[in-house]
Amino acid sequence: MSTFVISRPPRRPGPPLPQGELELQEPPALPEAQGADVSSVLTYLPMGLGSGATVLMFANPGANSGMYVASGLMALSTVGMVFSQLGRSSGERKRKLKGERRDYLRYLAQVRRQVRRAVDQHRAAVDWDHPEPARLWTVAAGPRLWERRPANADFAEVRIGTGEQRSLLRLVPPQTKPVEDLEPLSAGALRRFIRAYSTVSGVATALHLRGFSGVELVGAPAETRGFARAVLAQLVTFHAPEDLRVAVLASPDRVDTWEWTKWLPHLESTRAQDAAGAARLFATGHDELLALLGPDFANRGEFEPDAPVSPAEPYTVVLCDGVVLPEHSRLAAGGLRNALLLDVGGTAGHEGAYRLSLEVDRDRLAVTGTADGRKLAVPDFLGQARSESLARLMSPLRTSGAVDADEPMATDFDLAQLLGIRDPRAFPVDALWRPRAQLSAQLRVPIGLGEDGSVVELDLKESAQGGMGPHGVLIGATGSGKSELLRTLVVGLATTHSPEALNFVLVDFKGGATFLGAEELPHTSAVITNLADELPLVDRMQDSLHGEMTRRQELLRQAGHSSRLEYEKARAQGAPLDPFPTLFVVCDEFSELLATKPEFMELFVMIGRLGRSLGVHLLLASQRLDEGRIHALESHLSYRIALRTFSSSESRSVIGVADAYELPSAPGHGYLKKDTTSLVRFRAGYVSGPLSSPVVEENPVEPQQVAREVVPFGPLHQPLPTPSRAAEAERPPHSPDQSEVDDSVTLMDALIQRMRGQGPPARQVWLPPLADPPSLDVLLPAVVPDPHRGLGTADWAGSGALRVPVGVVDRPFEQRRDLLLADLGGAAGHVGVVGAPQTGKSTLLRTLVLSLALTHTPAEAQFYCLDFGGGTLGGLAGLPHVGSVAARLDRDRVRRTVAELTDLLEHRERAFADLGVESMSAYRRARRSGAGADRYGDVFLVVDGWSTVRQDFEDLESAISELAARGLGYGVHVVVAATRWSEIRPWLRDLLGTRYELRLGDSLESEVSSRAAAGVPPLPGRGLTTDGLHFLGALPRLDGGSSTQDLSVATKGLVEEIAEFWPGEGAPEVRLLPAELPARELPPAEGDLRVALGLDEQRLRPVWHDFGQVPHLMAFGDAETGKTNLLRLVARGVMERYRPDEARILLADPRRALFPLVPEEYRIGYAVAGDTLAELAGNAAVSLRARLPGADITPGRLRRRDWWSGPRLFVLVDDYDLFVGGMGGVLEPLAELLAHGADIGFHLVVARSTSGAMRAMMDPVLRRMWELGCPGLLFSYPREEGKFLGEAQPRQLPAGRAQFVTRRSVQLVQTGFLAQPEEDSTW
């Protein structure tokens, strides 16, 4: 059967009911009865006296008879006049009473006509709402069909017959005198009038069915069924199928009686089908009917009078005839919400507090069980033929699904109804988009209904194109429905416009619930939420929107058009142009946005000024309108929408009147002001409500197979044909039934889901903020092993050129992201990474190292790391590119690393000069061709924790700075990580050409921009480039992960993998000073006693002490640090270089440690106590004074030392602090000879403990030795002794290691170890 879709118009108002009251006039009263009136008689007394006087005058003799006659007649007339006057008063009373009676009866006649008109008006109004059942076909064939809505007070109200009702025009009796004082005829007429017209007879009597869970009809079968047909006919005529459903439960012998109901659209199932189409809600058994109605009906709550009716829960009338309901039936027990059991014949057995039992007779309808059996009405009946005709008349009709607005201000409706979408899950998207392809139809969308039921549309086009836009403002208080209206507007525009015609930028300053889910629309260019918690994103959004405006300007300029309108017109005429969609920017809570970021107003003004031509439309929404902040934008806001406001003043600010403040508290009520004169009240539709259950076919079957079957169309279920095996195999999986539908799915979800993937996706104006760090495999091309280059990137353009990615850069203005490249091959070869603790400095350093390692071989790039940042660089130790990783406590390795690179720099400076190498680029080319001055390529000194260098390795700061100052030209790079820029001295900071500024502890210390630095989020790896752009550092891993929880494991695995695939040698390791240096490994003494004391830390070369140039030597240190061993080295060197006759040794050895080493032939004296040493020193002084050159000694002889003869004297004093002498010390006799030691062959070597060393330097001999420039070796000693010799700082050193201190430098040396000849081999 073909169906026709109709649209229910707004409900037409019927004739008005009479209202008010009529005060009746008082009937006339009886006049008072009057007696003889003496006063009236007295008025004739002068006339009588005159007549008597006349008689006396003529009573004289001379009077004739005529005079007597005249006098008699005069007297007689006087008497007559008196008696006639007395009788006239009684006649006038009667005439007056008759006149008043006539006037009052005339008045009642006039009032009777007025009352009869009211009665006719009463009957007409009631008959309009409740016409006779026989005339219902006229309603079904006209525009009043299905006019009642759930919001109407008379929803589910039916006519049950005609009866007597009180007149709506109330007659008010007058206040009268007692009845006996009233004129009887008039009073009787008044009583009869009031009795006749206080009630109206023959008026339709209605029953409100929603107040009952069941209505029982008792009486003869013909009367009860005729009455039930009349009730059903009214229900299906005035109520639409989606609001009211009808189900029939009839015994098998009474199916024919109700077969006519099969034509009713109200009887069709929305969830089941049979062979005849949609299943009919008609059954012969209770359980069968509940199965047809579905679980939603069976699971309804307990009966509630006047419960709200909704599309998800329509009002359901179950007609039961001849079926006894089971005891467990909830229909019989107490009833279901929004359900009525109409029991024909009273056989169902319904019980409950809301049960109504009616006794139906031919001329009498009464409530059963009442004591008086009072008659309600004369019942209505409808024959079966008329019922079937009415049902057939409505059979092909269906509603469109669009909103019906009889009382739009009191009706809830959704967007699907506004758009006429019956099934949001399967509506034709292209069909709704296609009509909007015309420019005139674009940007127009329904948002609600007006007071007259008409659809209110918002047209965003500019006024020149007949619209209301392009920009507007929406203001609504909390709970006014502002967010819901925004969602309705956005989803409505998306449903009716293709992404080629319209895109969205949706901004929610607070939270993000307003546009939740809208990011899945193909129209969405950006959804920007939760800006209040992440204020830096506000600036990013400003850049993105500004960049989009600039991009659109450039696109129009290139196309040669001045506006989007001209562009689209040219495109519509066939010009080869890409789509240029309108961009609709919706900003919720813009007032708070401007309060936080006032500078954002500049962008709003820019959009307001240029958006008209660029196709950018702006809608600002907020709870309040801050006129002080928005005044610059006022002139650009074309339309205004005001929902309920907080105050009348706010309403006037938005729409010019206070009406918005007086709107109902229910959400969705508002005013639309589209120009200076038009103000339209509306109620908005919604999209966040639950989606009504879809039509689900039970036991689906192929339509082609059903079409081949011809089956009778009856009220009962028609079994489906058995599907073929092929059809069974091809049948899609069965859809879930209604009970399985997710109740959380909203209309907005369904519409968005339907549009997902439809049309081309919108251009992304807003890329997601940098949140998840990428891994190196995302930034680099494919990493593959190579037999020659190892594991690396074969296709990276920067391979071997020191140009590598280390992260991604966010460019919101260009609406893209770029690689964060470290280009270290030129002037920006030094790197500075600065950030507060735990901001990702060490991770970024590892990323840089591994990125270079994946694009360079260990022969091209080497790394030497000083790991002062927590040990994270230690995971790189196994990398073949890494020569060393030194921690803070490994002081020797730290110093050796710096020294090694310093030595390399000096070597390259000489080599470049010798070989004529012009630059490092030329050197790199030479190395690639197989030539090179050393084993190194580009060398990187990586320092993680610059503050540690300044605090614990202050002497290395200058050396590293020298590497930075001179290293770039020779391939030496410095990479520094610090917590603040101020930790790095300005002259070193200026050399760091590549800078990465992570989040700082204090944004004011930023070298880029303090304002931009304040906006860096607290995420590891986030920072700023030197251009002020935000970046996110990559993670040093190749597994695609973005987590830092297992980063150490992933980094270690990558390091092992690189090492496994490298076939060659790794980076040269850092050479360290040995923990113990055997003296035999030192070169022998040479020359005029040039003794090798050990190896220096800087170049690992021998440290010589030339006694010929500097005749004396000092040594200080704690016990067991190597002082005595130094004296052994000197003694051995003396004995190796000289024979006993050439050199003699004077030993001061209180601990007897040197005695076994020096043979007796070399010993000239041996002292273990102070007095002995003083005596020996005095004797030696006497002998040495004789060698002092005189004035006759020429410079030549002074160099040859030929004026004296004898052996050289070496005085070796161990533990000088243990020798106690006089005021000047035990060696005071020798003090004056110290300056001439080289000339006279006198050499003093003193070893002393550092305990009290600062005071000991006041000793004349020690002070004199330092003044003469004699060097000293400072072995390990504690900090509390302070600095007492030159610039050397107290240091804890291994045994045998010392600082070689001169006036010009401090050098760390490892002294040679010479074992004692005896068993005791201690130092």
Describe the structure.
The protein is α/β, with parallel strands linked by helices and 1323 residues long. The protein folds into 5 domains: 18-59 and 66-142 and 156-201, no CATH class; 209-399, Rossmann fold (3-Layer(aba) Sandwich), CATH 3.40.50; 408-602 and 611-684, P-loop containing nucleotide triphosphate hydrolases (Rossmann fold); 776-1061, Rossmann fold (3-Layer(aba) Sandwich); 1077-1313, P-loop containing nucleotide triphosphate hydrolases (Rossmann fold). Helices cover 31% and strands 21% of the residues. It is built from 38 helices and 49 strands. Strands 39, 40, 41, 42, 43, 44, 45, 46, 47, 48 and 49 form an 11-stranded mixed sheet that branches. A 10-stranded mixed sheet has the order 5-3-15-14-13-6-12-11-7-10, with helices on both faces. Strands 18-17-26-25-24-19-23-22-20-21 form a 10-stranded mixed sheet. A hairpin with a 3-residue loop joins strand 27 and strand 28. Helix 2 (45-58) packs antiparallel against helix 3 (65-129) and helix 27 (946-952) crosses helix 28 (954-967). It starts with a strand and ends in a 10-residue tail after the last strand. The model is unreliable at 695-708, 730-741 and 1319-1323 (pLDDT under 50).
